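Margin note from the TA: students keep mixing up input and output lines. Inputs are the sequences; the output is the structure of the whole complex. Example:
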Amino acid sequence: MMAGNVVVVGGGVAGMEVAGQLARSGCMVTLIEKESFTGGHVREWHHLFPDRRNSREVTDYLDRQIDHDNITLMAGTTIARMEYGKKVFTVDTDNGTSLSADAVVVATGFDLFRSERKEEYGYGIYDNVITSADLEAMFRNGAIKRTDGTTPEKIGIVHCVGSRDEKAGNIYCSKLCCITAVKQAMELKEHISDAKVYCFYMDMRMGGALYEETYRESQEKYGINFIRGKVSEVGETIDHKLIVKVEDTLVGRPLRMELDMIVLMAGMEMSKGGVKMAQIFGLKTGENRFFAAADHHYGSNASNVEALFLAGSCTAPMNITETISHARAAAAEVINYLRKAER
Amino acid sequence: MQFDPFVIPFNIGLYFILIYAVVRSIIWFRDLSRPDKLRLQRGFFGKAFGQSLKEIFLESLIHRKILRTNPRLGYMHMSLAFGWFLLILFGTIEADIFGEKHLNPPYKAIFFKFFNPEHGITGFEAAYAFLMDLILLFILSGLFLAVIKRFTPKVVGMKKSTKLKSLDKLALTSLWLIFPARLIAESLTSGEYSTGSFLTGSIGSWLATFLPAGELAYPFWWLYSLSLGTFFILLPVTRYLHIPAELFLIFMRNSGIRTGDKAGSYSEIQAHSCSSCGICIDQCQMNFSAGINNIQPAYLIKAIRGNEDTSEIAMNCLMCGRCDQKCPVGIEISAVRMIQRREVYSGPEFRNTWKGYFRLRNGDHTPKPNGHHVYDYLPEVAAAEKTDILYFAGCMTHLTPAVSRSMVKILDASGLKWSFLDKDGGACCGRPLMLAGNDREARELINHTSELIWKSGAHTLVTSCPICYKVFRESYYLDIEVLHHTQFIKNLIDEDLVRMNFLHKRVAYHTPCELGRGTQVYNEPKDVIRHVAILEETGYEDENSLCCGGSLGNIKISYRDRQKIAVDAAARLTSRNPEILITSCPLCKKTLSAATPTKVADISEIVAEAVIIPKTEKTSLKHSLPVAEAVNIF
C-alpha cells in the first residue's frame, strides 16, 4: 500500500476519474471543485454521442468513482495561493483551508466559447439564436420551442463557432462540435419529425469511433442537409425569422436562407479557472492557450512543474472517452512519481 | 586674387549642386499640373512667400516641430542646420568686412582663416572670431549627438534609428568630417599665427607646442574642402537631398499645392524632403506593438527614392495616419503611400534612371476602361419610396447587429421619417477597394450606391461606419448632408428630438482612425457620451488615438500580428479600468472586444440603452421597421 497526499483541481470528468483511481491506489485525495456540484459540462448535457446514451449513466459512474473514504470533496472552493518547497505543495483555498500535498493534478477542463463574441451570428441579440448547450437544455426539458412558443420548422446548425477562426483568436479545431452537430441534428428530427435541418460546415471531421457511421445515418435515415460553407452573418426579418448569409462552396454560389432557429456549435477554449491555475502554479500554456504538456507523445500528463500533472481537456479538446483515458494515465503518472519519491 | 588649389574640390561641389538645383527645379516645375503651376506663381508673388520664409526659418533651420516632440533630437538637427546657416552667413559677412576686398567668391568665406590667418587680434576682430568659434562649437555639439545617435539611438530618446544604404553612409562620413576638419585646420593655422579665439585659438596653441602646426594645417584644409565637395556631389543621390527639397516643399505647400492621388512633382518632392529622422517609426503601432519595423514611412520613402519595388512596403500598413500627425516635415505620408498602392495596379508614373539623377515620365499608364465591369451582377436600382433620413449601416455594421439595432431604436425614437438603405445588405461603399489601390473597381461600387442614395430623395445620409463615412464625404458626388451616426445623434440631442437617461457608468472613448484623423470628427462623439455617461480619458486622445489593429487598410499583415496590435491597443485604452470602452466604429468594436475582457460597445448602444421612447408616435412610421425589444446589454 502506497501513501501520499494528492490535490486534484477540478471536479469534472477528468478530475473525478483521477481522484477515483488514486484513492483506490491508496492515496489520500482532496478534490477541489469551484462549482457546488461535480461532473462539469457533462452534467448539463442530455444525451452523448456517438450512441446517444443518457449522460446520467456517465455521471453516475463518476459519482461512484469518487465515493471512496480516501477522497475529500471540497465543492464550491477555489485555490488562492500555492507554495512549493521540499517536495511538498502547500495549497491555500479561498475559504481559508491550507492543504499539504505531495503531488497536484490539474484537471480544470474547458470553457465553451462565448458565442456573443461572434456578434455577426446575433447570439444574445436575436431571439432563437441558441448554442449547442442551450439546445441540450431544451432536449432535457423535452420541448424545442422558439421564444414565441411556436415550433421551429427550419433549423440551421452552424459549425465552428469560435473554432478554426483566426479572427476569434482560435485557430485550432475543437474536434467535438461536428459530431455534436450530427447528434443534435438527428435528435431535432426525432423531436420535430417534419423539421428541415441544415448543417453549415467547413469540413466534417469524423475521426472518432462510430462518428462516420453516425454521420452517414444522419443523412440516410434522417435526411439532414449538409451545406459546405461558413456562415458570414445572421440577420432578422420583420416577422422575426432569421436570415443566414453563407456561400455554398460546393456549388460556388452565395446563399441566403430564412430559418426559424439557429444553433451555434460553440467551440472549446482554455477555461478561466485554468488560466488562473497557470498563474498560481507557473504552468506553461501553448499557442492555443491550453496547458502545454511536457511531451506530445509520451508526456501528455507531465507539466513543466515537478510533481504537477495534467489531466483531460485542460490540455486540448477531448471527448469523454479520451478524457477518462487521459485521467487514468495521469493517475498512473502520479503513482509512479510518488513511488520514486518514496525510495 | 587669393587662391589655392585645395579650394577646387569645394568649388566643383558647390557649382555642381547649384546647377543641379536649377535644373531640378525646372524639371519639377515643368511636371506640375497647370493649376499647380498657377498656384505656385501666385504663391511666389503673394503672401505665401513670406509665410514660407518664416516656415523655412522655423522648421528647416530651427526644427521647431522636432524640438517639440523630442528636444534632444531637435537640438541635434537645429545645431547642424541653424549652426551651419549661421556659419555661412557670418562667414560671408566676415569675408566681406575683413577680407582683402568686398564681394568675394564663396570659397573665401568658407576658407577665410586660411587666406587671412592673422585675422582676429584687434578688439572687434577678436569679438567676431569669438562669435565664429561659438557657432562652430554649437555645430560640433550637435555633431557629437548625431554620432552618438547613430550608435545608440536611445541617447536622443529614439527607440530605433533609420538604417542607411552605402551612398548614404559615404555622404554621412563626409558630413561628419566637415566640421572636425574645419576645427583642426583652423586650430592649426591659428596655432601657427597665434590667433583664433577660445576654441580654435586654445586648441591651436596647444597643438603648436608639440606639432609642426604650419605644415600640418595644409592637409586639413584639403580634407575640409574635399569633404565639403564630396558631400555636395553626393547630396542629390542621398537622403541629404532633403535639405534643399524641404525648401521647395514648404513653398509649394504654402502656395496651396496638395498631393492628390497621382504621382507628380509634389509627391516626389515630398519623398525627397524626408530626412529619415525616424519619428514615424516610433509612432507606428506596427513597430511598437507587433515588432514590424521595415515598412514605416521612412523606409517606404527610402524605397521610393531608391527606385525599389515598394509594393510590399506600401501595402503593409494600417493606414491609421498616426505618422502623418507627427511628421516634422509635414509630408502627406498616407497620400504618398496611396500613390504607391495604386501603382501596383497601374505601373509607376515615373522611371528613375542612374540612381535618381534623371527621371523620365513613362508612357501613359492611366488605366483605360476596357468595357469590362467587375460588378455587373449588381441589381438595377429601382425607384425607392421617398424619405428624409437615409440610414446606411455598412457591411461592418451588419457584422455587429447590436449597432444597427440600436440605431433603428434611436431613429424610431426621433420620430423622423427615415428608411434603412441596406437593411437586406447593400453593396460595399468602395473604400476597402480604394485602400487596396483598386480605384476603378471601387468607382463601380460608388456609382451603384450613389444611385441608391439619389433615388431615395433623402436630405441626410447617416452611416454607422467611419470607413463608409470617409468615402461618402470624399469620393462620392452627393449633394446631401452626410453624417456619421455620432454627429447625427449629437444633432438629435441639440434639437431635443431624443431624450435620454443618465447611466452613471464610467466609460472611456476610443477615437477610430477613420473618424478622427481620417475625417476630423473628434468632439461630437465625446459630447454625446457626456450626455449619457461619465467620460474618462484614455491617455490616447484625438490625434494621438490608437489604431485598433483591425484596419481594412492592411491586407498584408498576419492575423497574429494584428492580434498583437489589438491586444496592446486594448490594454493601453483600458489601463485606467473603465467599465465600458466605447468606440464609434463597428470594426473597432469587433477587434477590441476580441482583445480585452473589458466590455466594448458602440456609442449607439449606450445611447439606445439610455434613450427614452416617446409615448405618442410623432409621425406615421409605416415605412419603418418595428423595434422588437430594447437592446439591453448593460
